[in-house]
Each structure stands twice: as C-alpha cells, then as structure tokens.
C-alpha cells in the first residue's frame, strides 16, 4: 500500500477512535456537557472580571422591575414566535421532527402579556436583544440546520432549567408568587424533554462528526444571545 494511503488510513482510524465527552449517551449529552463546561468557564471569568454584575449575582440579590420583566417577556415571545414559525415552515426536513413537542411557549407568553395588560400595564414593543436574536435565528435556519438546532436545544432546555429558577425568583419579588403560564407545561416536563432528547439524538445520527462539532461550537453564541434577552429583567 502506498505510504500516503497508509497515513490517511491511520489518520482516519485515529479520528474514528476519538471519543467526545458524552458521545456514548447520544448527541444531546454532548451538547449538555459543552453547555455546562462553557457556563462554568464563563461564570468563573465573569466573576473575576466583573464581580457583582447582574448575570452573576445570586438570584436572592436580584431586584427586578415590572417594566424590565415585561420587556423580557415581550422579547422572549418574539424569539419563541420566530422559533415556532421556523419549525412549522421546516425549510429543512429535520425541523419537522420538532413540531408539537409540548415545549412551545408562544401561546403561554401571549396569555401572560394579556394578564399584565389587564392589570393596567402598557406592553412595550420588542427591543434590540429580542429583535437581534430573532433575526439571527431566521438567517441561520435557512442555511445552517446544525446551528439552528443548537439554538432550539439551548432555548427550550435552558428555559426548563435555569429559566424556571429565574421565573420563580421574579415571581417572589414582584408578582406576589404568581406563576406565569410561561413556566407551566401540559404534562410532565421531564417526559416532554426526554421525548425531544430522543428526537435530537435521532436527527444527529445523520450528521457527520464535523457537523456535530459545528453544532457544539454554536452553543457559545446561543448563550450570548440568550443572556442579552435575560438581562432585560433588571432594566429600569
């Protein structure tokens, strides 16, 4: 066998053997691992550089405002509206796998905003963080399914975990412990999430290792855009 062929064969074998953290349990576990590692790394960096900043404060020390929370809900609705429309239109076949998962939040957010309106609050227009994120989702969904599915994962799974914690703390601070529809699901949330995990793993089985890595690399961008929307909660 020619030397080049031997070298290429050995390189391919080496690449095949490379094990990615969480890979044995499916691609969602790989995404979870990267997200947790990135969160820990960024948290340490932010604490060192900007101790006391909003996103790194203990939730107990948060002082949210109703105005800021409304901006957050409005921008969140825009992001979720956009996400759901993209899934419904399914410009890539894989997107159709994620219709009617039970995780959709647009209708719930519409009810919450209507409740605030009934309480006499003025509902603001979407602001820069939500508009930026929604436009970005539209752009990548048309040409980069791996990146889009990364955001699908981080938006829904992030909301079911840290998002609920934030919602509970904000409710304690300014809503007399009222639980908004945004934080309620029909059925067991754990089962809804598991169903989506299974679908994500199934879709990712058809990806190359390079495509999987590209999806994982997008997690950092999704964190940045999500933090922009979440930061509205403390806006005055």
Describe this protein with a few key phrases.
9 helices; single chain; 66% helix; 236 residues; disordered N terminus; 0% strand; mainly alpha
List unreliable stretches of 5+ residues: 3-17, 47-56
Radius of gyration: 20 Å
Q: Count the DSSP helices.
A: 9
Helix content: 55-70%
Overall mean pLDDT stands at 87
Distance from N terminus to C terminus (CA atoms, Å) equals: 70 Å
Instruction: Determine the structural class based on helices, strands and strand pairing.
Output: mainly alpha
- Beta strand count: 0
Order of helices and strands: HHHHHHHHH
- Tell me what portion of residues adopts beta-strand conformation: under 5%
**Shape field:** globular
Give an overview in words:
It contains nine helices and no strands. Helix 3 packs parallel to helix 5. The longest helix is centred in the C-terminal third of the chain and has 30 residues, at 145-174. It has helices at 3-17, 27-49, 66-89, 106-118, 128-141, 145-174, 189-204, 209-217, 219-230. It has 236 residues and is an all-alpha fold.
Give the helices and strands, then pairings.
Blueprint: H1 3-17, H2 27-49, H3 66-89, H4 106-118, H5 128-141, H6 145-174, H7 189-204, H8 209-217, H9 219-230
Task: Briefly summarize what is shown.
The chain is an all-alpha fold and 236 residues long.
